[in-house]
Amino acid sequence: MLILPPLREPAMKRVFSILCAALLLAGCATTPAVFTDFDPGVNFGEYRTYRWAEKPEGFSPLQQQRMIAAVDAKLRERGWTQSTTPQVDLVGRIVTETRYRMDSYNYGPMWGGWGWGGCCWGSGWGAWGGYNSTTMRSYTYGTFVIDMFDAQTRRPLWRGIAMGTVPDSPIDQTTAMQAGIDRMFAQFPPVAIAQAP
């Protein structure tokens, strides 16, 4: 039977660093957190037309284009149409910021077996004390807000917010953005809350 020697300390550090980096990156692909709010006294059944009074800016122009198209598609599904004389004004905003995260790892202690005695070759059992590693990583955190106002009275009607880590890949950005907008409009138009007599 062939017994391969265990990894020496520098090689073990590299293996652990690669594994932890892979797990960290896998954990970054999350669905945005979504929140909505609305005026319970508004009858949304009265509204059918809208316009973008302010389009969301501050991010990639292509992603902005996709974001607007995704919102337009959701409103079309609900029977809303764009108009030059709208009932509702949409105001979109995008805010991004660079954040930093410190990740600390503690590897060890490690125990050796046959042919491994701590940090050197030999027979019997031994312990390797392990080591600590801290990595600082920067990432982009984004918040997308849509506000709806009555176009005539400027009364605020509805707000949707999606926030989360912005993936590096444009494909992943689009996927996360679409997931956020899907959830944002899942309960739209909201049903007015009945007032107690």
Automatic annotation (TrEMBL):
InterPro entries (UniProt xref): DUF4136
Key words, A-Z: Signal
Signal sequence region: 1-35
Pfam family, one: DUF4136
Residue ranges constituting the DUF4136 domain according to the UniProt record: 34-190
Protein name: DUF4136 domain-containing protein
